Amino acid sequence: MKLKLGIRSIGEAGKHAFNHNRQIIQLGKLGKVEEAIRIFFNMTHKNLVTYNSMISVLAKNARIRDARQLFDQMSLRNLVSWNTMIAGYLHNNMVEEASELFDVMPERDNFSWALMITCYTRKGKLEKARELLELVPDKLDTACWNAMIAGYAKKGQFNDAKKVFEQMPAKDLVSYNSMLAGYTQNGKMHLALQFFESMTERNVVSWNLMVAGYVKSGDLSSAWQLFEKIPNPNAVSWVTMLCGLAKYGKIAEARELFDRMPSKNVVSWNAMIATYVQDLQVDEAVKLFKKMPHKDSVSWTTIINGYIRVGKLDEARQVYNQMPCKDITAQTALMSGLIQNGRIDEADQMFSRIGAHDVVCWNSMIAGYSRSGRMDEALNLFRQMPIKNSVSWNTMISGYAQAGQMDRATEIFQAMREKNIVSWNSLIAGFLQNNLYLDALKSLVMMGKEGKKPDQSTFACTLSACANLAALQVGNQLHEYILKSGYMNDLFVGNALIAMYAKCGRVQSAEQVFRDIECVDLISWNSLISGYALNGYANKAFKAFEQMSSERVVPDEVTFIGMLSACSHAGLANQGLDIFKCMIEDFAIEPLAEHYSCLVDLLGRVGRLEEAFNTVRGMKVKANAGLWGSLLGACRVHKNLELGRFAAERLFELEPHNASNYITLSNMHAEAGRWEEVERVRMLMRGKRAGKQPGCSWIEVQNQIQHFLSHDPAKLRPKNIQIILNTLAAHMRDKCNTSDMKSAFDIL
DNA sequence: ATAGGGTTAG
After folding, report:
1. Which of A486, A501, A519 is the last residue of a domain?
2. What is the pLDDT of residue A720?
3. At CA A702, angle to CA A696 and CA A704, rounded to 5?
4. Mean pLDDT for each 10-residue chunk of chain A (748 residues)?
5. Closest nucleotide to A181's CA, by C1' atom?
6. Is A135 exposed, middle or buried (CB count within 10 Å of its CB: 0-12, 13-18, 19+)?
7. Helix boundaries (H) for A186-309
8. Nearest nt to the A52 alpha carbon by C1'
């Protein structure tokens, strides 16, 4: 009797534990770790599964250290406990820790081997994964083989993937899909289609892969055709197609699809909300958010981010406050919102109050400090964070680079164990930002030696640095490199090349690149037009504008900045005015301060100062320093002291520490013989402690950068350069009215 | 009920 009762009570306790274990797992999936932990501690009858489940939940919710602690505390472990812990490390990208456990575990099964192989493939250590695959005792278990195929396929090593695929004794559908994923994820849709059609058996995952592949490669109509043929589309199929439409701006079509979905899950709702957020239609997003039956943390976070993206921080905070269970993602979202609005100290307070930071949260705070130039605080956090990922390291590298501390950036870079493309890009961009071309180029070469191929952003950032520095020689070398590495068809790279050549004064090369690009976009046109403008080719700019219109490319704000500045550089005031009018009336573009700035420059140069000033008075946007600077310059040339003084005073408000504004005004007074005024402005300048940044320019001659500082001692210059400068000065004196050009001679 | 391999949302 007693025994029976005992057994029954154990049975009931077991049932109890069973239910609690399930609860723990479910809460873990919802990200509610704290609640899961509470249940765990309140359980009187914990069994082995309870511990295993708790370890899994902790590991998957950024509490990997707690997970390990619990694992170590267990008096009895089974194989699942070991596998769960290894899976936890896999989830947190901690391969070394996983490998240590794998080495000491008492026995291994197929799960253990597959886990470890996946660990290595995720880190890109394919040789290591391959070694392990050879050692797997059970050759018929497909998971290990499949993990290996996926590893090769994701890296684009199709031949290796295919070899493993053909070698494996028993294939299942996942093996086929892993191969297929390799093709679709790497944009090889031709191969993908071939493989897909050769498959005798397909499931919805195979179809979904194809649709996603077409979406990714920009072939929306093929994606749609395939989507419509899917025998039993599931939620993933619908969401993939929806996001495909959203990606190409077809918001209304995406909504239509959403309304047609037979069964919507949370992900479907979240995808639609994210689509509206991405399109900055936050009100629409909120409407759906309020309607959706079950909100999860992604739904809440999307709305919070949506409000932040449109600058409504208060609304974001309200939503956050209403959120029932604030997980780390939501906390980080709001914290980033504070950072983006420059409220970094509030963000830091919030950071301190967060209990369990994950890597993303640490990284966001570090990025916040780093972007505001507070590198000491960034470093402090970086040192404190328990687990760093590549983003953490890269943030520090670009932070130091922006702060002009390339020695520190290099130190961080060298201390990094696994450098990725972004690390190299950050370092190279840093060198370029700090005018260290040679170091940048050396890094580019070193990067190649270490087996890392530069990507489009390597080229885009190096080219834009070359453009800003007019470093033509480096730009040319990059161009050759780009041609060799096959990135010429990338629009980012192509457009950066156009801009580089244009800014280096090589209009013909810019045109050549423009012609070589297979399918130009608006940015390509804008780069070309700005290039013409910059180099004084107004007629070419006009022609390009006509041609782009005939090809049905619709100009934007930037196009018109280019067009107006083309007119301005060529002294074509009336055409400029016409274009300005056309922009507003025919293209419904609201002029920005930059457009007005061009207009003022345009009118000011030809002496139409009254009109320039009336333009400024009539404008709706706030005038910027560039605009007042143009007006002041024009007033000096055309000797309008009264208006010049007005413009100068606005400039003193906007940039009180910029000495050149004070100097221009004081020179104007001097030229008019008003010596008391000269003294007054000089006093004002001293009062504001305005410092003069010496005028600086440089050109590249035979791979050497030659710097020129205004008023630098002539003896520091090479003799031949000084001779050229003197000759130039003589030419200028010959052509111009000396008193007007006085400032131009400052450099000589 | 807890651990592995292929597809979707922040």
Report:
1. A519
2. 61
3. 45
4. 38 76 88 88 93 95 90 95 96 92 95 96 92 94 95 91 94 96 93 96 96 94 96 95 94 96 93 96 96 91 96 95 88 94 93 88 95 95 90 95 95 91 92 85 86 82 78 85 80 90 93 90 93 94 94 90 93 92 91 90 90 87 86 88 89 83 86 88 81 54 56 58 63 55 45
5. B6
6. exposed
7. 189-198, 204-216, 220-229, 235-247, 251-260, 266-278, 282-291, 297-309
8. B2
Token pair of A359 as six digits: 């890597």
Distance, angstroms, CA A274 to C1' B10?
A: 8
Domain count, chain A: 2
Q: Reduce the DSSP state of residue A257 to 3 states and report it.
A: helix
Q: Is residue A535 part of a domain?
A: no
Query: Measured CA to C1', what is the nucleotide nearest A149?
Result: B5
User: Residue A259 has what pLDDT?
Assistant: 96
Give the angle subtended at the CA of A49 by the CAs of A45 and A52, to the nearest 5°. Answer: 120
Of A492, A519, A546, the last residue of a domain is A519
pLDDT score of A300: 95
| Shortest-distance nucleotide from A114 CA to C1' | B4
Torsion angle defined by CA atoms of residues A58, A85, A151 and A225, in that order, rounded to the nearest 10 degrees: -40
Per-residue pLDDT, A6 = 37
Distance A86 CA to B3 C1' (A): 8
**Torsions phi, psi for A706 (to 5 deg):** -105, 120
pLDDT at A8: 41
Which positions in strand B are less than 7 Å from the protein's CB atoms? 1-10
Phi, psi angle pair for A697, to nearest 5°: -150, 160
Contact A241, A223 (CB under 8 A): yes
Residue A603's pLDDT is what? 92
> Mapped to the 3 state alphabet, what secondary structure does A376-434 carry?
HHHHHHHHHCCCCCHHHHHHHHHHHHHCCCHHHHHHHHHHCCCCCHHHHHHHHHHHHHC
A331: in domain: no
Å between A106 CA and B3 C1'? 15
**How many Å apart are A457 CA and B8 C1'?**
27
Helix, strand, or coil (residue A570) = helix
For residues A55, A57, A63, A67, the Cα torsion angle rounded to the nearest 10 degrees is 0
Q: Which nucleotide is nearest to A180 (CA to C1')?
A: B6
Q: Which nucleotide is nearest to A60 (CA to C1')?
A: B3
**Which residue has its C-alpha nearest to nucleotide B7's C1'?**
A205
Integer distance in angstroms from CA A388 to C1' B6?
29
Residue A101 belongs to a domain: no
Distance of A426 CA from B8 C1′ (whole Å): 31
CA closest to B1 C1', residue:
A22
Å separating the CA of residue A136 from the C1' of nucleotide B3: 17
Q: Which residue is nearest to nucleotide B8 (CA to C1')?
A: A236
Is A500 a member of any domain? yes
Q: What is the predicted pLDDT for the residue at A484?
A: 83
Residue with CA nearest to B5's C1' atom? A143
Whole-angstrom distance, CA of residue A717 vs CA of residue A453: 40
Instruction: Give the separation between CA A156 and CA A191, rounded to whole angstroms.
Output: 12
| d(CA A694, C1' B6) / Å | 61
Residue A3 confidence (pLDDT):
36
Q: Can you give the distance from the CA of residue A551 to the C1' of nucleotide B9 in angstroms?
A: 37
Residue A185, SS3 per DSSP? helix
Here the tokens at position A601 are: 């420059």
For residue A350, which phi and psi values (nearest 5 degrees)?
-65, -40
Residue A719 belongs to what domain range?
Answer: 695-748
Looking across all nucleic acid strands, the nucleotide with the smallest C1' to CA distance from residue A88 is: B3
